[in-house]
Design a protein that fits this description.
single chain, alpha+beta, 3-stranded antiparallel beta sheet, 10 strands
């Protein structure tokens, strides 16, 4: 065996040794380093969070308006959009050294076809979470007073005996009394709107004046209705999740991310949310045809042939997304002679 072949074998042995432990030094002078590619599956997920605030008069909606209303505050989240893409980056656990020679530039040019990779990776992207939870505010809705007057009968002792004295007192209205006033106002506003439309009013409305009056009455009616039906605050969230498939995962099932009603989109490690599963099904890779001629002497370069995988994203038994992507690290590694 020539010194040149021994030197190449030593370099490759050093490369395998370096991949087995943390690399802290520098590559030998005069060598070129390259890494095999690995596939990273990126999920771009958008979610919507709805914070519902029940109206203070919700319990009286059926009695005074004949409608059913939600009785309690709720926070719900749902996924609105998912996009899947496959990215390639250097697999630092499969890095090799090669000495530049006559055939090396041609071999390294194959990087544009995805057989090998010099490095790099997906850029880090910022993300934001939902703002702090708020509380329902119905203080500015409605125009009726919170107080009412009530007549009370008091008694006092006088020389001629016990005398009844009428005295007016200011007391707080009950919740149901306020609900009834709000319902009466809703029906009054509806009656006013119908009167304007059919012309049954003391004032005459036409053109833009009629439109503006109807619009204002409708706004007031909706404001009063929220006292019974409540209202919702909706905000959006967007997060990116990167999944790196591994051959060590026998069933090729990965928790891509989780969805929590309180926090929205959360990482896979946060067990407070409901999991969304990513499943890969690599297709069978057939054996290559026998080599007709023996490879020439010299250096050997390594590359990867990706496995084409059927990928599905599931929420329980429901399939939300499916596609086909090549995954390098689930494929096979091969080699080719790189003659000097």
């Amino acid at each position: 065996m020539s010194r040149k072949i021994l030197s190449s074998a030593l370099i490759l042995a050093l490369a395998f040794q370096a991949s087995a432990q943390e690399y802290l030094g520098t590559d030998p002078v005069g060598t070129v380093s390259y890494a095999l590619p690995q596939t990273v599956i990126r999920l771009e997920v958008k979610a919507e969070k709805e914070s519902f605030y029940a109206g203070p008069y919700a319990r009286y909606a059926q009695k005074y308006l004949g409608i059913d209303a939600r009785q309690s505050d709720e926070v719900t989240c749902r996924v609105t959009d998912i996009r899947l893409s496959a990215l390639s980056e250097a697999d630092q656990s499969r890095r090799f050294l090669i000495t530049p020679g006559k055939g090396v530039p041609t071999f390294l040019a194959l990087t544009t076809q995805g057989l090998v990779s010099f490095g790099g990776g997906a850029p880090a992207e910022g993300s934001w979470r939902f703002p702090a939870d708020g509380r329902g505010d119905f203080s500015a809705k409605g125009i009726s007073s919170n107080l009412t007057s009530s007549n009370a009968t008091l008694y006092r002792n006088e020389k001629q005996g016990i005398v009844a004295v009428q005295q007016q007192m200011v007391v707080e209205k009950s919740l149901e009394a306020r609900a009834k006033e709000a319902a009466d106002m809703i029906f009054k506003l509806r009656s006013m709107r119908v009167g304007i439309v059919i012309g049954d009013t003391d004032a005459t409305y036409s053109g833009e004046a009629m439109g503006a009056a109807i619009e204002e009455i409708t706004r007031l009616e909706k404001e009063y209705m929220t006292l019974f039906t409540g209202y919702s605050d909706v905000c959006e969230q967007q997060m990116n999740y990167d999944i790196v498939p591994s051959k060590d995962n026998k069933n090729q099932l990965y928790i891509a991310f989780r969805l929590s009603d309180s926090e929205g989109l959360v990482p896979a490690e946060d067990v407070s949310g409901k999991p969304y599963l990513l499943e890969l099904k690599p297709q069978k890779i057939v054996s290559p045809a026998p080599v007709a001629v023996k490879p020439g002497k010299g250096q050997v370069g390594y590359y990867r042939i990706p496995a084409v995988c059927d990928v599905q994203l599931k929420n329980g038994a429901s399939v939300l997304l499916q596609s086909r992507i090549p995954v390098y690290q689930l494929g096979i590694e091969s080699s080719m002679p790189v003659n000097e």
